[in-house]
Automatic annotation (TrEMBL):
GO terms for molecular function: pyrroline-5-carboxylate reductase activity. This is Pyrroline-5-carboxylate reductase. Its EC number is 1.5.1.2. It is an enzyme of class 1 (oxidoreductase). Keywords: Amino-acid biosynthesis, Cytoplasm, NADP, Oxidoreductase, Proline biosynthesis. Gene3D superfamilies: NAD(P)-binding Rossmann-like Domain, ProC C-terminal domain-like. GO terms for cellular component: cytoplasm. PANTHER family: PYRROLINE-5-CARBOXYLATE REDUCTASE, PYRROLINE-5-CARBOXYLATE REDUCTASE 3. Belongs to the pyrroline-5-carboxylate reductase family. It comes from the Bacteria. Residues 160-263 form the Pyrroline-5-carboxylate reductase dimerisation domain.
Amino acid sequence: MKYGFIGVGNMSSAIIRGMCAGDKFNNEDILGYNRTAAKVEKLSAEYGVTTCYSTQELVEKSDVIVLGVKPQMLPSVLPEVKKYMKDGQLIVSIAAGKEISYLKEELGENVHVIRVMPNVNSRVLSSTSCYTASEDSTEEEIKAVEEMFGAVGSIIKLTEDQFGIFSAVGGASPAFTYMYIDALARGGVKAGMPKDLALKIAADSVMGSAKMVLESGKHPYALVDEVCSPGGTTIEGVCTLHEKAFMDAAEKAVTAVIEKDNRLK
Ligand SMILES: NC(=O)C1=CN([C@@H]2O[C@H](COP(=O)(O)OP(=O)(O)OC[C@H]3O[C@@H](n4cnc5c(N)ncnc54)[C@H](OP(=O)(O)O)[C@@H]3O)[C@@H](O)[C@H]2O)C=CC1
Ligand SMILES: O=C(O)[C@@H]1CCC=N1
């Protein structure tokens, strides 16, 4: 099976790096075409993936074609893809906002399409992804996508009406978490700790806290209470976060992402 990526930017290269890090794929069976060829050439040099120099070359050589360009680029990319597609090829779109109905309208109603929303943690085999498949998708096609994204993290099936929400809570939220980790470390630096050490401690603590939420079965706020010793130190920080509307800001950030996702339709 040949996996071809059109648009090898931040997201596709994270998936490719993740796919190459495991042992499930032959690296040369992963193909990439990017407007700026140097991005794919770098991955070819690092991992031995195959560089293509046109949409035509990529489409002709691939079984699974991953649309990795920004949603705004799809109107110019899809006609090119359509021109060179043949029966039996599968389209995988990772574009935010753009629905299966739009992709089928542009590529042809008989084209099989699976939408996936991954995140950049694919690069370290820790993506949180979801997919929804067009009704005509075959079991083999769904299996291929589950294997591809399962190899770079977790993947769940979701109805398309939930995609925008997933895009915020699963796709965009790593950015918020990276900001939070940096902010924690910055606080440590302010108090005198070297930044690299503070970052490592903050990131490790976030990873452990996520594990705790997933594995303890407890409500996150019950866990907050467990950390706050009466009259202790943590409660001072928790009250400060409340005062600065931390929860409200995070919730509004998710809503803002969903609203933008809806505007891309
Ligand atoms: N970043 C993320 O965390 C996530 C992104 N996504 C989705 O992934 C997609 C890509 O996003 P992202 O990787 O962040 O964006 P990037 O801008 O990093 O990547 C897009 C790539 O597409 C290339 N490109 C643009 N036009 C063409 C074209 N006509 N032919 C070939 N290549 C082209 C660009 O090339 P050039 O180098 O020339 O600019 C660029 O490398 C989006 O649809 C986004 O919604 C989904 C989930 C998470
Ligand atoms: O910022 C974006 O548009 C993409 C979609 C979800 C995460 N990143």
